[in-house]
Amino acid sequence: MDLALQIVTSGLLTGGIYALLAVGLTLIFGVLRVVNFAHGEFMMLGMYGAYWMWALWDIDPYLSVFVVVPAIFALGLLVDRLIIRRTIGAPEVTVVFATLGLSIFLQNAALTVWSADTRSVTTGYTGTAFTLGEVRASVPLVVSFGVALVLALALWAFLNNTRFGKAIQAVAQNRDAAALMGINVQRVYMMTYAIAVAGAGAMGAIAAPVFSVVPRVGLSFVITAFVIVVLGGLGSVPGAVIAALLIGVVQSVVGFMIGAAWAEIAYFAVFMAVLVLRPQGLFGRRGAEVYQGA
Amino acid sequence: MATDKQSSAAVTATAAAGGGSQGEPSRRPRIPRIVGLLAALAALLVFPWMLPSGYWVDLAVQVLIWGALASAWNIAAGYAGGLSLGHAAFLGVGAYTSTLLFLELGISPWLGMLAGAAFAGLLGLLLGALTFRLRGPFFVLATLAFGVVVNILAVNLRGITRGAAGLVVPFDGGWENMLFASLEAYWYVGLALVALVVGTTLWIERSRFGYYLVAIREDEDAARSIGVRVVRWKLVAASLSAALTALAGTVYAQFVQYIDPSSTTRFELSVQIALIAIVGGMGTAWGPLLGAIIVIPLGEILRAEVGGGPALMVYGFLLVVIVLAAPRGALPGLRALLRWIGRRGAGG
């Protein structure tokens, strides 16, 4: 029983960290109808940002968020200007492969600059754990979980309670009608992309005390994030959070019972089943899966 | 019968149009087509012997294998509109099936490649049956997931694939095992492979099947409404594409004589297959081969000159620029250039 509780707890904690990545991915898809293959690379850049600030100036990774987020936000604005803007309404091959090309570019830029070495952040609290009854949870994992969830919820609150957040939702529902209501759609696209990738960067920074950094780290995370956002319903922010927790638990439980590789197979099986049987996801609006490309 | 006549008339019309679009002036005596073809064939046959060293022959064979892979992808993606990011799975199935049959049962890879193609064809059919309803990014993500699952299986089904240790193809030389001491021999195998895949594509282009596929790609609902059996033709294209990819997988395994999950089923390979076809020109018969002629030597030169990381940075950059600036790839541009040269030649 305690063991089961332990496994579920660590699954939930890891899932919470995934949530922050998945929320941005689902937001970009919901609003821009672009699958951002480069999302994991923004997370990777956030991780390196936190790592280097820790390695060079001994800055705590959780504090580095305050530098990483504005930096990745600015990078997001630049990427929107150079690439994303030009893919809106373009042929499908452009929409898919432009961000994929960006992902290859960023990944190998990191490889070129920082080499393929695995780097990890070690702080005073590395290796320490909270204990509640029989359940132990590592301190960095719990803190990262907390920060990730707070940021994801803050994003959700921003979407629901601010004027600009509502403009973003309006564009997600119907870009033409939103434009007719006087919403600057181009600006909404730009800000959405930058906010979402800044979220990925923040996730990278707060994940730095938990996971090691390599240039390829984004790929495995983004593939997991795709599974999460499809499961939660592409475009649905609360769906992404719930699905992230679910995937974290699946990963942890199956990983413990039969092995980590089979955990991946298990959630891909879920992924395929959802795509085939319920493409709108568990929490998505019906019809949201109908792709309105061009 | 009537349909046969119609389609053959269409073929003649296409051939005539193709001949006309070369822009050859009528004043100049036309070289008979057959002579040109024979000259091209002779040039291809002696080509590897003209190259300065084995390094270049090796590179040329890689161009052919990647050209075949990208052409096979193109049948599903360029004609039927199913942008797959999981095609490395079929490459892996082809490579592993023929290699395991050879290692465990001593079955010649010539036969093994057919088994691999049949297996991949069935998998392609299965994947197609699961995904034919999905559109846009959902289809892409489903194929990506399929590719990742095959990669994980290749690493973890150690009892069958020997996992990350990989499989060494024992050098039991001789043409009957598709193992050759000379690199040049692989050039001919590669040529035959490319001829098969590009030939299939050319046939598709001229066939009723090809028109169905293009109709589906352009507007699936419209195609359905005029009576095109959308699901059937999508599945045929997916299966054919997977089978041809597996054939190239076997040739790849015989050529490098060592396979492991990373060199045959990695996600990046699926991306590279697509990248090559896109650079050359999706939805054209010769585009993917042109893409391989551009991308493979470029990658090789960059790797040698600036290293692997920067080489892949250029790949990424190239992919972004091509899909943004010229989503139809290099082939239309090359065609325009050749026509322009043809006109200049006629004028001067």
Query: Helix segment count of chain B?
Result: 16
Largest beta sheet: strand ordering of chain B:
1-2
Largest sheet of chain A, in brief, is: 2 strands, antiparallel
Which structural class fits the helix and strand makeup of chain B?
Answer: mainly alpha
Sequence stretches where pLDDT stays below 50 over 5 or more residues of chain B: 1-25
> How large, in whole angstroms, is the Cα Rg of chain A?
19 Å
Q: What's the N-to-C terminus distance of chain B?
A: 48 Å
**SS-derived structural category of chain A:** mainly alpha
Choose one word for the global shape of chain B. globular
**What general outline of chain A do the C-alpha atoms trace?**
globular
Explain what this protein looks like in three dimensions:
The complex is a heterodimer of chains A (294) and B (348). Chain A is mainly alpha-helical. Chain A has a domain at 16-215. Chain A has 11 helices and 2 strands; from the N terminus they run ααααββααααααα. A two-stranded antiparallel sheet of chain A has the order 1-2. The radius of gyration of chain A is 19 Å and the shape is globular. The relative contact order of chain A is 0.21. Residues 286-294 of chain A have low confidence and may be disordered. Chain B is mostly helical. Chain B has a domain at 52-267. Helices cover 78% and strands 1% of the residues of chain B. Chain B has helices at residues 2-20, 33-50, 54-79, 88-105, 109-131, 136-156, 158-161, 183-206, 208-218, 220-225, 230-256, 261-265, 267-280, 287-306, 308-325, 330-347, and strands spanning 167-168, 258-259. A two-stranded antiparallel sheet of chain B has the order 1-2. In chain B, helix 14 (287-306) packs antiparallel against helix 15 (308-325). The longest helix of chain B has 27 residues, at 230-256. Mean pLDDT of chain B is 83; it is low at 1-25. At the A-B interface, helix 3, helix 4, helix 9 and helix 11 of A face helix 6, helix 13 and helix 15 of B.
